[in-house]
Amino acid sequence: MASVVLDRLVSQLEKLPGIGPRSAERIAFYLLRESTEQACELAEAIRDLKLKLRHCSVCFNLTDEDPCTICQSPKRDHSVICVVEQPKDLAIVEATGVYNGVYHILLGRLSPMEGIGPEQLTIDRLVERIKVGDIKEVIMATNPTLEGDGTAMYVGEIVSGLGVKVTRLARGLAIGSQLEYTSKATLADAISERKKL
Ligand SMILES: [Zn+2]
Hints:
Layout: H1 4-13, H2 21-33, H3 36-51, E1 54-55, E2 62-63, H4 69-72, E3 77-84, H5 87-96, E4 101-105, H6 123-132, E5 137-140, H7 146-161, E6 165-168, H8 184-192, E7 195-196
Parallel strand pairs: 3-4, 3-5, 5-6
Antiparallel strand pairs: 1-2, 6-7
The chain binds zinc ion.
């Protein structure tokens, strides 16, 4: 391509998941035709994502205000904590509309294969929350994979040791599946029919 500016944009777009060189070029030319306002809006949204979004200091949800709106909400039941692997899992549980407690995001799962141990997750902070808060139940909503199950067992044992009831999502979820690919209805059932761990 003849333009350094255009080349730069195309090479950046190409790095995005699912975008090949062809699509990158198509998007670049599309943006060129778009109004300046529209294109700058996109640029700003990307910029804000990195500069304004951070992890909630309580639950590690992604948020632009700290604590996040869920942690701040008086309408939520703060005595029930749903533990998930990633912020995207929180969004999925929220979308079911059946859960009114708060969350704790581990920011990963235990993975001996990848060398991810308990110290790399936010387990310590969860323990702190349980010690200072009036917590009645912790729901382990890690993915129903080998590593997600292992993480649920590990964290569940620590939480039980603190005298708090621990539950796990019901087994309606296919083993090895990910929450993000589970239908809302199935996940809603799995939450309502959760079992004592
Ligand atoms: Zn929060």
